Amino acid sequence: MLPATVIKRLTALGEISQKGKRLNGLFRLMENPILWFEAYANIYSNDGAITKGVDGSTLDGFSENRVASIIARLKDGSYRFQPVRRVYVPKKNGKKRPLGISSGDDKLVQEVVRNILEGIYEPVFEDSSHGFRAGRSPHTALQHIEHEWTAVKWIIDMDIQSYFDSINHDLLIVLLEKKIEDKRFLRIIQAMLDAGYLEDWRYHATYSGVPQGSICAPILANVVLHELDLYMKELKAQFDKGKRRKGNKIYISHSNKIRRLRRKYDNLKGKEENKKKLQEIKQRIQQVKQQRKKYPSCDPFDAEYKRLYYCRYADDFAGAT
Length: 321
Fold this sequence. Notes:
With 321 residues, the chain is an alpha+beta fold.
């Protein structure tokens, strides 16, 4: 559990971010050992915690001295990210997905960086975003669609091919600079991106993409896709028209018929000689109700009303009108 002072500083990141101000002092925040112990607590039980990186190190042997050594090397600029060890895992479609396995120390640095980035960006990410976020998933995306998308005529479902492998490093840093002023913190992320990977014990430089399997990959991917979310939000504001759909004439006609039958029923009830007639009116009301169910209450083709809906889950997203 993080102490109150650290929680307060992390919370302040989000508050400053929401005000549109750029953040500094992030590297100094990384010097707090408490963040590193929290990072270890977050990831030590993960399946990949004891999977060896290219240098053979894992999260085993975590200690105060190890934390102090990492912080000292980050401060004097001697820390070097190891290339990730690339392996391939099978996908459901029969293809294989590249997975990057980082060294033990690199995993700790990534988790600390992720924690800080999450404090900055989670408060400003859009509600339409459900990919790689705490408490969100394809299930919450489906709930979002079920509750908010109404009277949809067209649905467009899209997927960004090889998204993680194709993220432009320069663009990513430019986008991070919109929120972050701390150059030393940004240099850590840049070094993380430039570390390269080892495949079959051959080194490959990385000029684009974030390694799938990296702890920071999801939040960095969302930083880029946040721009898509903002674009779609602006597009929706331009596209949407009218406050509500006008009523469907056929539906309204059936409702008026039901209303007249009910008035007639009220006028006849209470008299024994009208019992058969009242029964006929009740049956007719039910018949009209069943007929009304065949039609929407509002006009789905109302030219004065239109809506654009958008929802993103991972690097897949859907739009509807």
